[in-house]
Amino acid sequence: MRFLLSLLLVNFVAASYDSWACGSGKISTFFAYLVSLPAKDREHINLCCFHHDAQYDGIDAGQLDITKRQSDWEFKQCLSDSKYFYSREIIKNVYVWSVQLNTWFNENIYCKFAWC
């Protein structure tokens, strides 16, 4: 019986993880997913990430007339709209810091050695 429950739980987590939009690669997605597990409004968090990613795609394609910095601000505001403390304070700060770190890395390290 425990084996079946464990198998069911692993299947549920894997299915939920597959639809997770937060993170820019396998490792960051895994950690973003892990940090979000205690959150009561994971759908809201995932929607914020989905919109943020869509904005970045639109900016990169020249279809949106906003900057990535503006998109990051909207992402922060979206996470701030949560009615739950954990999401509003912990998730927001961890995710926004991660986005800022990724942006800094891309602008200051990656683009110095690759075509950007």
UniProtKB/TrEMBL annotation:
GO terms assigned for molecular function: phospholipase A2 activity
TM region(s), chain numbering: none
Signal peptide as annotated in the record: 1-15
Entry keyword set: Signal
Superkingdom of the source species: Eukaryota
GO process annotations (BP): arachidonate secretion; phospholipid metabolic process
Identification of the protein by name: Uncharacterized protein
